[in-house]
Amino acid sequence: MSIDDKDDHDSTSHPLAGKVDALLSKHQPPAPVIDRNIPVLTDLVKAPEWGPGDTPAESTGKEAGDARRDPLRQLSEQEIDALSSDIFARVSQRIDAELATSLEARLAEQLQSQLNVVLVHVLDDMKQSIANEIGDAINAALADRLRR
Questions:
Q1: Is the pLDDT of residue 21 over 90?
Q2: Among candidates 75, 50, 52, 70, which has minimal Cα distance to 60?
Q3: In sequence order, which residues have a C-beta less than 8 Å from that of residue 74 and are 6 or more positions away?
Q4: Which residues make Cβ contacts (< 8 Å) with residue 66, sequence separation at least 6?
């Protein structure tokens, strides 16, 4: 039921109908907006002109503006190499630190489980050895006692 429907009910004769219409229009999804300026996954977008020797500044002719936006354009080859080496060293240090922590945790876990297995076997062997030693000591003490 909407305000446009003029069967037997209009919002002036039924005040509740006007409220229902307002409530329904409030909760209805908005009408779809079709804007063809927004690319969709199926639309083809033309790539900018580029050649193998071109840089973006050369192809667009905005070298001065790009240098301000892209500080790498102001650096020499040696500075770029130094920056690359510095970035590589920092990334390597960070990865090494994280890997060292992870490796240490895994090694500790593996060593702990292996150590537990070894301790169980050693204790079993020792229990038998201790029991044998105690039995030998008791037999020796009884033999000494019987000889007297």
A1: no
A2: 50
A3: 67
A4: 56, 57, 60, 73
| pLDDT of 121 over the 60 cut | yes
Distance CA 12, CA 25 (A): 17
> Measuring CA to CA, how many Å separate 79 from each of 2, 5, 59, 76?
71, 75, 24, 5
When pLDDT is cut at 50, 70 and 90, the band that residue 138 belongs to is very high
* Residue 145 Cα to chain centre, angstroms: 76
The pTM (predicted TM-score) of the whole model is 0.29
Main-chain phi, psi angles of 11, to 5 degrees: -70, -20
Q: How buried is 11 (Cβ within 10 angstroms: 0-12 exposed, 13-18 middle, 19+ buried)?
A: middle
CA distance 112 to 98: 21
Higher pLDDT, 61 or 22: 22
* C-alpha–C-alpha distance, residues 90 and 98, integer Å: 12
Does 12 score more than 50 pLDDT? yes
